[in-house]
Amino acid sequence: MNNPNFDVLEAFFHWWLGGWKGGLFPSVHEGVTKIGNDFTGLVLYRQGPFQVELWIVSPGTEIPDHAHPNIDSFLVHVTGDLTVFVGEEMVLGPVQTVARSDGVCKSNGHWIRIRPGQQHAGRTGPLGAAFLNIQLWLDGKPRSTDSDWKGDALNEEHKKKLVSIHAKAYVKSLRESCGSSTKEPGNTSGKEPGMEHSQEDSTSPYLTPGGRPPSAADVERYGGVSTVDA
């Protein structure tokens, strides 16, 4: 039975946080992103539309106001001095990220939901910071978060990357537009009817230790999950 309150990203969020501690998930080989000297990203998990990244940001770094049009995500504080604004509201700051008397983070694991297209910004303090980004990609094609970006670039290196991405997307759209005008109607996939799903579309068992993310079938079979607001 369908449950209109079921949140597929939230289900994946709780599944991943509950399962990763049993061992390291198989990593994406080209899963490290460097953006200048201040930003380093590491893909910890990627399968289907889901992805988990760990980002490490240098001390005293500004993250300009921006949005990710294709990403629904939870940002999870791991360590360090991190302040995050969603719109004009400070949703994460010194109250949550300071250390206890024994040096341990006071509230390690504090999380924030950032919706697709939602404007947000941040900065790090003298210690720098690290955070997880647990994502559902609306276009089903996970990649480095800095490539799905609307707003001011992080730095000059990031600006060049965004220009390159936009140029490639423009050329691709032109080719697809020209190609579609010459194709005949009918089956143009090159596959036999009923064989639309390739082996790459199927779930690879070795990528899902401890289970798998929630699927559409899970939604119908098990219904909703409990929700926790930040």
Count of helical regions? 4
Mean pLDDT: 81
Apparent shape: globular
Write down the Rg: 20 Å
Largest sheet: 9 strands, antiparallel
Strands, count:
9
Distance between the termini: 28 Å
Uncertain runs: 191-210, 222-230
- Work out the strand percent: 25-35%
Which class of secondary structure composition applies to the elements? Answer: alpha+beta
Give the helix proportion (percent range). Answer: 10-25%
Could you give the order of the helices and strands?
Answer: HEEEEEEHEEEHH
Describe this structure in words.
Strand 5 (71-86) and strand 6 (89-92) form a beta hairpin. It contains four helices and nine strands, in the order H-E-E-E-E-E-E-H-E-E-E-H-H. The protein has helices spanning 8-19, 94-97, 156-182, 216-222; strands spanning 32-35, 39-47, 50-57, 62-67, 71-86, 89-92, 111-114, 120-137, 150-151. With 230 residues, it is an alpha+beta fold. The chain is globular and about 70 Å long.
Keywords, separated by commas or semicolons:
single chain, 230 residues, nine-stranded antiparallel sheet, 4 helices, 22% helix, disordered C terminus
Give a brief outline of the structure.
This protein is α+β, with helices and mostly antiparallel strands. The chain is 22% helix and 31% strand.
Topology diagram in text:
Blueprint: H1 8-19, E1 32-35, E2 39-47, E3 50-57, E4 62-67, E5 71-86, E6 89-92, H2 94-97, E7 111-114, E8 120-137, E9 150-151, H3 156-182, H4 216-222
Antiparallel strand pairs: 1-2, 2-3, 3-8, 4-8, 4-9, 5-6, 5-7, 5-8
